[in-house]
From TrEMBL:
Biased composition (Basic and acidic residues): 1-32, 114-124
Molecular-function GO terms, alphabetical: hydrolase activity; RNA binding; RNA nuclease activity
This protein's name: Uncharacterized protein
Region (Disordered): 1-80, 105-124
Domain of life: Eukaryota
UniProt KW Nuclease keyword: yes
Extent of Polar residues compositional bias: 48-58
Entries under SUPFAM superfamilies matching the protein: Microbial ribonucleases (SSF53933)
Methyltransferase is among the record's keywords: no
Keywords: Hydrolase, Nuclease
Amino acid sequence: NYSGREVRKAVYESHKESERLKDPTLSKEKSPLKPFNNRPNAVPKGSCNATPISSMTPVSKHPAREYPLPNKVAPGTPSPARVVTQKMAHGRQAFRAVIAHDQSRKLGSPGYNDHFEVKEKKQK
């Protein structure tokens, strides 16, 4: 589980990384900031939507990107959870959702790279 503070921090870090990558002399290859295409899942789960974030506008009109949340299980390694931001009509990036890979799917199995939206849990 991730707190709202951790999600907001990851969104902020994604904005900082985006600004850093505007320097043409820097390599984008090792950056944790990646394009997010919201492609349909290869193996959808039960009643889930075909795409990870159903409320997103088409990526062809407004590009999106994903940035990893911290890995609490194995610090220093990539986390299966990501924050997704999308460029809006006014040009700024807006938070869209938290997504994650299904950890029960083994490497190389169908749907291994599928993303699923992580729903918010309200604190009691």
